[in-house]
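Q: Joint fold for the lines below.
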Amino acid sequence: MFYREAGDFKKTYAEDNQTFPLRVDRWAYYLVLVIAFGAVPFFINNWWANAAIIPFLVWAIASLGLNILGGYCGQISLGSGGFMAVGAYSAYKLMTSFPDLNMFIVVLISGAITALVGMLFGLPSLRIKGFYLAVATLAAQFFLVWMFNKFSWFYNNSASGQIHAPTRSVFGYEVTGATATAPAKYLFCLVLVVLFAWIARNLTRGRIGRSWMAIRDMDIAAEIIGVNPLKTKLTAFGVSSFYIGVAGALFFTVYLGDVEVGEAFGIQKSFLLIFMVIIGGLGSILGSFIGAGFLVLMPLLLKYIMAEKLGFPTDIAAHLEFVIIGFLIMLTLVLEPHGIAQLWRVAKQKLRLWPFPH
Amino acid sequence: MKLTKLAAYAVAGAMLASPVMAELVFPSLSYRTGPYAANGTPVADGFADYFTLLNERDGGIGGEMTRVIECETGYSTEKGVECYESTKGEGALVYMPLSTGITYQLIPKVTADDIPLLTTGYGRTSAANGDIFSHIFNFPANYWNGASAAINYILSQEGGDISGKTVALVYHNSAYGKEPIRTLEALAENHGFNLTLLPVDHPGQEQKSQWLQIRRERPDYVIMYGWGVMNQVAIQEAANIRFPMDHFIGIWWSGSENDVAAAGMAADGYLALTFHNVGTDFPVFDDIQQYVVDAGLAAGDGSNVGTVLYNRGMYGAMLAAEAVKVAQAMHGVADITPAMMRDGLENLVINDENMAAIGFEGFGPNFEVSCANHGGPGLVAVQQWNAGDQKWELVSDFAETDMSVIQPLIDEDSAAYAAENGIEPGRCN
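A: Joint structure:
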């Protein structure tokens, strides 16, 4: 009744091709942007920024990255944690070598470096597929973590092997370090998230995205109709690693400020990211956000309810949290194997017909 | 996304509404889950029980009740940050995160928020330089004291000459485990021994290759910087290759009952460092039994009382409580702020007199904290596991460590931190 195409006339090709063809969707999108940029910065406090929203935004970028590779191009990667580490260590070396560099530039160069590393480790994808490729990328994960532990140049010879993000600012506002305010950190991440989500959305519905999907759906057929697998797979690895590198850089500089590679970028981070993408929905931009939100915010919510409101002992609450999250993951995948984004898609289809279905 | 966000905002509203009460708040960033739970649980119990004792027996500290807020970190730095952010608003007086990774995380944050951080026997070693690390305290001993104490013990066993000997360091491949490397390298140069480094990756269940290498190279001594399940595995592996246990020295985080129990009699004679005493042979434990365990208020089931890690948690709580007393005396108020707590920690004096007054006589070394020295004198003892009696025994006194090696390293590392973060030294002049 409210959610429908009727009356929403398109007069140009541009209008016909827009991301949100329905007026309600468009409004919702603009509303979210207005709230995110115009309202949240005035209310956000340290807990919200450092414990919930910033990790959510950072993981959303990473999740977009892995979704491009896994969801759109069909290449499995278990090396995301290692690629995040590349982003983080690049950012660290750039920040300490060039103290005056704008943080946006630091983050983007870190992404570019990660893209190169990702393409290097993506080369085997030209010969091997599926599980075998997963194993090859797993090697990247372990190799990169080992490398950042082994060579002290990467952590500027600090005694403990930790890397520490010094205070840096963007246009006069501190965005890293302990004295950076919550709104500044939040807005810095938000700008990057919106920018990268917008790029991802438009990449995936253009020529490049369609060639990725062609390779995903049937690589031989794609090759026959003229999609170059070398270029396609490597661009997917490059773009995906760029996103993951940016997320790693933000994870280190803005979110944690101090990381140690084995703990922060270990194999469990690769798995976490894969869970996000699968739960959110493979091949869906919205799904990347939903997946990141589910696995970042849900544990906080459960912990808050059980440990603080119900007063459970902290260890029981932590164990129950594992059980509940695990159960929810299974439930989601049983009820909707294509992820939560698919539920939303189905709901929208139904809404269009409501209240008079066929 | 919308639903999750809505729920999250609802949570935010509820959190903002929670009132701040006039109490002495001590957050306990504990870990009772995950691969380090076996060691994290007794420490958290000891910490909580001591404050329960103060409330039940003395009505708090200086007439002000204490409150321990427990927050589960699972030894993960991300959860540690979340715990810090969610508890600091409740008037937290001092943070004791029991994790070197979380400590590194919190050092800049607590300094900016003006809350002290007390890391007893862990954390960033160079934070002993109070001139640069104004809010960080790591008395009574740090990792580098530990490394030096281990070498001193080896020297005493070998008659003062260990040139040409080989010492292997088996360490947790993280910030914590890497800390002693620099000190050991300097000591190796001074004393002419060879140092072999054997990293073990988190969580440390897989150590076959490291111990195979030890078996092949037969180092004269093995020093271990391990934590959690890594300790048990290492001691079991050492027993498997019949490495002599009295040549195997663990740092104080590798010297609890949990670590040696799994290997049974094979662990007999295993050595570990410590900066406080072991057992329940102190008056305070009678009170713990009476007011806490028998009253059914213990954080755990009471079975951990007197174990090494329980005692360590209690010792940390005791140091914090003593610092509160100093702060209350300095500022003349009972309900102190975190900034006052910082002053209390910086002027803390632990001597026979005040240790006896609280039933801790002989429990730990005497020391004084000052503005420039936040690390104390670094007195370390060696304890040995007696598998027959199932208990730890001190086999040396709390002895001095080689500060002529450690102090230059502290100065160098803290100066690097100061330069990196634009901190001007000279606060203490």
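Q: Anything notable?
A: Chain B touches chain A through 59 residues (CB under 8 Å). Residues 10-20 of chain B have pLDDT under 50 and may be disordered.
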